Amino acid sequence: MTTQNTELGPEDRKIITLARSARTRNGVAEGAAVRDETGRTYVAGTVELDSLKLSALRTAVAMAVASGAKSLEAAAVVTEARSASDEDRAAVRDLGGPAAPVLVAGPDGELRATVTAG
Questions:
Q1: What's the half-sphere exposure (Cβ side, CA atoms, 13 Å) at 12?
Q2: Cα dihedral sign, 62-63-69-71
Q3: Digitized pLDDT (tens) for each residue of the chain, 118 residues in all
Q4: What's the sign of the alpha-carbon dihedral 104, 109, 112, 113?
């Protein structure tokens, strides 16, 4: 499900800003950030190695899991794409459940859509 939402709370704005910063700082196609059940954030960019390719969102989810997160409250991805991929949404769903919001923003940081992980 996709919804348009221009009213973001400060914590959601924060993860979009962090995702945008990761994308810019690392010069990668996407930046992402996730927020866990304690409010901690995990930030990542696209991983493009010869032997390993991960989207920014899947990398951020993996970082959260590796750091002991039990669930996700929200995720954000900054990308040229108009929506999060099915694989990215599945990674968020694995930790955040089907209702976890995935905020999709453009490179300018403007929210394009909010999709659920389910």
A1: 17
A2: negative
A3: 444 445 789 999 999 999 999 999 999 999 999 999 999 999 999 999 999 999 999 999 999 999 999 999 999 999 999 899 999 999 999 999 999 999 999 999 999 999 998 8
A4: positive
Q: Treating both helix axes as pointing N-terminal to C-terminal, what angle do 56-66 and 10-26 enclose, rounded to 10 degrees?
A: 110
Residue 21, φ and ψ in degrees, nearest 5: -65, -40
Q: Which residues neighbour 65 within 8 Å (Cβ) at sequence distance 6 or greater? A: 95
Domains in the chain with CATH codes: 2-116 (3.40.140.10)
4 burial (CB, 10 Å; 0-12 / 13-18 / 19+) is exposed
Q: How far is CA 1 from CA 4, 102, 108, in A?
A: 10, 10, 23
